[in-house]
Structures are given as structure tokens and as C-alpha cells.
Design goal:
Blueprint lengths: L13 H4 L5 H14 L5 E2 L11 H12 L12 H15 L8 E4 L2 H12 L5 E5 L5 H8 L3 E5 L10 H7 L4 E7 L11 H13 L3 E5 L26 E6 L12 E5 L1 H12 L7 H12 L3 H22 L14 E2 L14 H12 L1 E2 L1 E2 L9 E4 L4 H17 L2
Parallel strand pairs: 1-10, 3-4, 3-5, 5-6, 6-7
Antiparallel strand pairs: 2-8, 7-8, 9-12, 11-12
Helix pairs in contact: 3-10, 4-10, 5-6, 5-9, 7-8, 11-13
This protein binds pyridoxal-5'-phosphate.
Length: 400
């Protein structure tokens, strides 16, 4: 139940009252506060590329503005953008989508929100594997659903079909999949993803596949989109995609959904009464992102590959810290339980004191359903990585 502060005149929604603010955005805010106070902060918190948006994409937006393409667009986005998304999935994954199955959204977040609120009725259960991206359970609860978590500790955070089958009940309506996963970086191998979707189809539930980190996968792991599955396995599937990470476009707020026509129609209805359509200039930028040269994506991936290798090696040299190899995205997710000593009794305390003593921001794993872990984003420069690791080492060694 929501408790009302004394003297409050705001008699707000119970659903929103029980919602937790985003812990990842809170970490970003904390870093910003320290920076504003003149501190030399190392920020491992930000889940966004440190690269600038590529010039061709910026130019497309500037051109759209100069040409007066500054008005409302159709709710689901311009035909050009829808076609660019369809072409991308056709080219890369041999998937066939119709324009009525594509909705351009204001960030991948809106696609996930649209998908969840159009599907759930009160009490519906939604399967979410731990560790999970912070937004999933909040959106589910907001829509009246019940998040049901799948523990994946025994499989080193890699979800498999048996775990999914065991978790399904008569009330299960939806599973939210996220590969590459934020925060663990785990990538579900294509064959396993298919087995999971076979279970989903057999048991008649729906699936949202959050493919926000689709292109950031490190070999031998393979890039895989649920779009490449045969039509009978994606009848009840909604893909949520994003331009934010792939093209360093976090501030542009562009994403999309790909789903069957009925689900898409429902999502368009919700969107038409909330944001109407994504920003028109950003839609032109996103069209160029998909249709234009892709060199910026490979440049970023190369850089993340080098940073990842360096960071994993360096973290493993810190006594007490253990870190599996993430196969995708741009996060390391080390376990810090062996570092919990003295006044540090939780990963939350670890993160808080590291920030106070060493002005180094990491995100507490508890917010992702994995207490005892912290998330470090390596979407930051090598110099910052080096300095940050030096500080974490000093912080841990000081406590023996
Ligand atoms: N999904 C995951 C797993 C994410 O980490 C994020 C952003 O951090 C998003 C979706 C949403 O990204 P955006 O709304 O910026 O497209």
C-alpha cells in the first residue's frame, strides 16, 4: 500500500505508488551529483555508449528539420522507417514482416510498455529470468500482472527451456526474454532460444523478446534475433528493439516493436493515446541509421571487445571478486560476496561506500534481482576503466 506523507494533497495511484524508481537511473543521478560537486568521478553506472551519434544520422535529422518534416507522423511511424526496419530484419535474419506489424516507438522502453499493458489482465503471471533489467517487473506490476522470477544461478545466469517449462502455470500469460542480457551479458545460444520458444508455443503463452543489445555480441557467441524463427514459433511474439545502444542514440528516444497484426493494433491504440508518435526528426535519423553505412556499429563493437578483454582480466586480479565472461552487451557483472566484510554487508553497501570513498559509481545487483553482484558498464573510456579498477582494488584491499 502507498503511504501518504503527512500533509500531502496528492492521493495518487496505488499501482504507481508501489513502483520502484529505476535503480540504474538513480546510479546515473548519483554520479551527476558528485560531478556537480566538483568530484573526479569514475562512472561505471551509465548504460549508454560513450560514443557520439554518427554524423550521417545527425545530418538526416537536421535535413528533416530544414525540410519542415516537423509535424505529427502516423502513430506507428513513417512508412520509410517501417520499411527500413522491415528491410533490416529481411536482410539480416531472412524474416518477413508487413508494415502493419511494425510500430516505431519512443525508445525500446515504450515498445516494452506497449506490449505488456496491451496483453495483461489483473493476476496474469509473467515469467522473468533473474537477473533482469529493472524495468521488466515494474511495468508488469503496473499493468496489474504478477512477475514470477526464474532463478538461473545454477546455470550461471543462462536461461534454458527446462527452467521455462517448470515455471509455467495455468496463470502464465507472458515471458519476457532479454538476450544479450542486461545486466549479466549472457547470450542465449540460438538452439536454446528456439527450444524456449517451442515451449512458449506449446504452452500457448506470449513472449516479448527485448533485443536492445542485439548487435553487441562477442564471438564465439552468435547474434540471434527471435525474428529468424519460423512463423509458427513467433505467432505470439513481440520483438522490442532499440536504436539507443546500437547507434549511440540514447537521447533520441527511438525504438520499435515487431508483432502480429492484432497485438500491433492494440499497441498502436495505446500509443495513439499516449505519445501519438515518436519524434518526427528522430524517425528520419533512425531511418538513416538502418539504411546508411554500418561502420559505426562495427567500430563500437571493436572498441567494446578490447575494453571487455581488458576489464575482465583486470577485475579477476582483484582479490575476492569473481566475474564470468559476458557474451554480449557492454556490462561486467562480478560477484562481490567475498568482499562483504566489516561494515559492508551487502552489494548495496559495497556500491554506496565505493561511491563515497572512491567516487566510483557501480550499480548494485540487488536492483536486478541479484544481490551480491554489482554491474559495471564498460561503455566508458579505457582511461576511466583503468582508473576505476585501480580505485576498486584499493577499496577492496583496504578491507583485507
Ligand atoms: N532493454 C534493455 C535491456 C535496456 O538495457 C534498455 C536501456 O537501458 C532498454 C531496453 C531501453 O532502451 P531505450 O528505451 O533507450 O531504447
Amino acid at each position: 500500500m502507498m503511504t501518504k506523507p503527512a500533509g500531502s494533497h496528492f492521493n495518487g495511484s496505488v499501482n504507481v505508488g508501489s513502483m520502484q524508481p529505476s535503480s540504474t537511473l538513480a546510479a546515473m543521478q548519483a554520479a551527476e551529483t558528485l560531478r556537480a560537486a566538483g568530484m573526479n568521478v569514475v562512472d561505471f553506472g551509465a548504460g549508454e555508449p560513450d560514443f557520439d551519434t554518427p554524423e550521417n544520422i545527425k545530418e538526416a535529422a537536421a535535413r528533416a528539420m530544414a525540410e519542415g518534416k516537423t509535424k505529427y507522423t502516423p502513430t506507428g511511424g513513417t512508412r520509410e522507417l517501417q520499411q527500413a526496419i522491415i528491410d533490416f530484419y529481411g536482410r539480416e535474419f531472412s524474416a518477413h514482416y508487413e508494415p502493419q506489424e511494425v510500430i516505431a516507438t519512443s525508445g525500446g522502453k515504450q515498445a516494452i510498455f506497449n506490449a505488456v499493458v496491451t496483453l495483461l489482465n489483473p493476476g496474469d503471471e509473467v515469467l522473468i529470468a533473474k537477473p533482469y533489467w529493472v524495468t521488466f517487473p515494474e511495468v508488469v506490476a503496473f499493468a496489474g500482472g504478477k512477475p514470477v522470477f526464474i532463478e538461473t544461478g545454477e546455470t550461471e545466469f543462462l536461461l534454458n527451456a527446462e527452467q521455462v517449462a517448470k515455471a509455467i502455470t495455468a496463470r502464465t500469460k507472458l515471458i519476457i526474454l532479454n538476450s544479450p542480457c542486461n545486466p549479466s551479458g549472457r547470450v542465449i545460444p540460438p538452439a536454446e532460444f528456439r527450444r524456449i520458444m517451442e515451449v512458449v508455443a506449446e504452452r500457448d503463452i506470449h513472449a516479448v523478446s527485448d533485443e536492445c543489445y542485439l548487435r553487441f555480441v562477442y564471438p564465439p557467441a552468435q547474434i540471434f534475433s527471435a525474428a529468424s524463427l519460423p512463423p509458427e514459433l513467433r505467432r505470439r511474439l513481440c520483438i522490442a528493439g532499440s536504436f539507443s545502444k546500437t547507434y549511440a542514440m540514447t537521447g533520441w528516444r527511438m525504438g520499435y516493436s515487431l508483432a502480429g497484426q492484432e497485438w500491433s493494433r492494440a499497441m498502436a491504440k495505446v500509443q495513439s493515446h499516449s505519445t501519438s508518435n515518436p519524434n518526427s526528426m528522430a524517425q528520419h535519423a533512425a531511418t538513416e541509421a538502418l539504411n546508411g553505412p554500418q561502420t559505426s556499429v562495427s567500430t563500437m563493437l571493436e572498441e567494446y571487445t578490447a575494453r571487455r578483454a581488458w576489464l575482465l582480466g583486470a577485475l579477476r586480479e582483484i582479490p575476492g571478486l569473481s566475474c564470468n565472461e559476458p557474451e554480449g552487451a557492454f556490462y561486467a557483472f562480478p560477484e562481490v560476496t567475498s568482499c562483504l566484510k566489516g561494515d559492508i554487508k551487502s552489494s548495496g553497501e559495497f556500491a554506496r561506500q565505493l561511491m563515497e570513498e572512491e567516487q566510483t559509481v557501480v550499480t548494485d545487483g540487488a536492483g536486478f534481482g541479484a544481490a551480491g553482484y554489482v554491474r559495471l558498464s564498460y561503455a566508458t573510456s579505457k582511461e576511466q576503466l583503468r582508473e576505476g579498477v585501480r580505485r576498486i582494488k584499493r577499496f577492496v584491499e583496504k578491507r583485507g
